[in-house]
């Protein structure tokens, strides 16, 4: 089953040809709900002013138990920190060539994502990107080159 709502946590199965999604953890629900609304939400530590990836229950930086992590809207902007381009079919849900990138968000956390519509040779380390929210396909959010921040 290809589940667009949970694509970022998708697990690839070579045999079944389907993208099986993990059930989102209840404490990560705001992240997935926000994607449906075209927003990127991240947990934020009010003690040390640091953003985390969804799933964190306690700030791994300061381990503070003084207050819970609170959800804040992120800019959706970042830069490509690493990438790989697949030229062979690995999974029926993705037609080659396709890329898998590590996106370093402006807020700090690094998340796995895909840069859409990248021309050959455009994808590079440090490329500024911004989130594009999609309601079809197998990923709820992809990134595109951020034309406003291209050098
Ligand atoms: Zn903290």
Write the layout of secondary structure elements.
Elements: E1 10-12, E2 19-21, H1 29-36, E3 40-45, E4 50-51, E5 70-74, E6 77-86, E7 98-105, E8 110-113, E9 128-133, E10 141-145
Antiparallel strand pairs: 1-2, 3-4, 3-5, 6-7, 6-9, 7-8, 9-10
**Helix vs. strand class:** mainly beta
Order of helices and strands: EEHEEEEEEEE
Let me know the average pLDDT: 82
Are any ligands bound, and if so which? zinc ion
The span between the termini is 41 Å
State the shape: globular
* C-alpha Rg (nearest Å): 16 Å
Main beta sheet strand tally, sense and closure: 5 strands, antiparallel
Sequence of strands across the biggest β-sheet: 8-7-6-9-10
Secondary structure tally, helices = 1
Helix content: under 10%
Low-confidence stretches: 1-20
Give an overview in words.
The chain has 151 residues and is mainly β. Helix content is 5%, strand content 34%. It contains one helix and ten strands. The chain has one helix at 29-36, and strands at 10-12, 19-21, 40-45, 50-51, 70-74, 77-86, 98-105, 110-113, 128-133, 141-145. The strands form three sheets. A five-stranded antiparallel beta sheet has the order 8-7-6-9-10, with no helix packed on it. The protein has a three-stranded antiparallel beta sheet with strand order 4-3-5. The longest helix has 8 residues, at 29-36. It starts with 9 loop residues before the first strand and ends in a 6-residue tail after the last strand. 22% of the residues are buried. The model is unreliable at 1-20 (pLDDT under 50). It binds zinc ion (ZN).
């Amino acid at each position: 089953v290809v589940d667009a709502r949970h694509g970022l946590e998708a697990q690839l199965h070579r045999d079944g040809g389907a993208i099986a999604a993990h059930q989102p953890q209840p404490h990560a629900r705001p992240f997935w709900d926000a994607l449906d609304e075209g927003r990127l939400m991240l947990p934020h530590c009010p003690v040390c002013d640091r953003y985390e990836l969804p799933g964190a229950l306690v700030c791994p930086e300061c381990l503070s138990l003084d207050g819970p992590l609170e959800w804040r809207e992120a800019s959706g902007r970042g830069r490509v920190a690493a990438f790989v381009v697949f030229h062979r079919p690995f999974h029926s849900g993705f037609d080659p060539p396709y890329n898998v990138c590590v996106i370093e968000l402006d807020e700090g956390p690094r998340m796995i994502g895909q840069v859409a519509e990248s021309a050959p040779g455009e994808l590079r380390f440090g490329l500024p990107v911004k989130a594009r929210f999609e309601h079809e396909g197998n990923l709820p959010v992809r990134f595109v080159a951020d034309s406003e921040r291209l050098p």
